[in-house]
Amino acid sequence: MVIKPKIRGFVCITSHPAGCAAHVQEEIDYVAKQGALEGGPKRVLVVGSSTGYGLSSRIVTAFGFGADTLGVFFERPSSNGRPASAGWYNTAAFTAAAEAKGLYAGNINGDAFSQEIKDKTIATIREKLGQVDLVIYSLASPRRTDPVSGETYKSVLKPVGSSFAAKTLDTDKKIISEQTIEPANEQEIADTVKVMGGEDWVMWMDALSEAGVLAEGAATLAYSYIGPEVTHPIYRSGTIGKAKEHLENTAATLTAKGHPAWVAINKAVVTQASSAIPVVPLYVSLLFKIMKEKGLHEGCIEQMYRLFAEKYNNGQPETDEAKRIRLDDWEMKPEVQEAVKALWPTVTSENLEEISDFAGYQKDFLQLFGFGLDGVDYEADVEADVPMDA
Ligand code: NAD
Questions:
Q1: Which residue has a Cα nearest atom 30 of ligand 1?
Q2: Is the pTM of this model over 0.85?
Q3: Helix H segments across 52-152?
Q4: Is 235 a catalytic residue?
């Protein structure tokens, strides 16, 4: 079939197998070009491995350190002629490339919050890897079912305390409007922390540790975001920020239990998760413009390569006073933030393309789903059903 993008709001409901494969290959080529990394983990579990930061982490550990990897994700295979989700195609392409290099690449598709998927992961580690040296926790999900109570919690993206009126960009219609978002109630705050905070990270580490599948000194990494003042009411001081604070504090809890745990504060990039957050796509479009002008631009793969090549330091990372690894150092440079802040009040629907890098935002967004990649014939018939053992 010929597959074209079908965008609905901030998601694209189709994805292209050859385009996703080309996107994954670009990331692999980037790592190969930077060169091999020394002394890192050789057996890595990535929870949330199919898209965004988790996928790039998997690519860097496999193609940089030469690690065997096991990936856990929640993706949809193709059915009834409908394309699979992008993360399915990404993982199929990653697996083929890793195996061609002689690396183990195992995949588990299912709900990472469930006990069943944790048990399946443990059994697979026992059988295929024995133990793992590093666990990367990179989930981004709008809901979570508590495996103990069976109750389902939904996260919300709302301010805390008072309403927030801000410019926001409808990325589909290219319209900037003023949007007022009402504050979350206590229940919504607690539910968001339940979904995106550190509780499930602890459950993973406890389960892996009790099963004896963590190697001596095995470490774990999770990802968070802080960002600038313009996004604070909706991000850092909002419901998601409360969850991220909880996740960051969880690192100390896990370290005290015997496995060094780190949170890396990553920069804002275009992913399926970030495109759903109000205000963020407009900020990202302005940020990309400035960072590209200053030669500081990075996407997921550049960030994850810099994490492992320069910051992680084989488990002895350089951190800030709160023991967080700061990969947002370039994003938060005063000259970058001052330039974004100066543009912020001036941006309108009319001058969006001129003063921001909305074109770059859109390109990245389409590429998440395998569209707009060089060298891919989008008029050609492709097989949507790409098999994968997961
Ligand atoms: P993403 O949407 O690209 O990836 C999310 C991953 O989680 C996918 O592999 C998906 O399959 C998996 N997943 C979601 N629900 C699942 C479930 N129930 N079971 C199993 N797998 C599930 O998101 P991302 O932006 O790469 O986010 C990853 C982490 O990075 C998050 O902690 C996010 O807050 C953080 N982060 C993102 C940004 C950004 O700008 N995108 C910036 C800083 C930090």
A1: 223
A2: yes
A3: 52-65, 86-100, 115-124
A4: yes
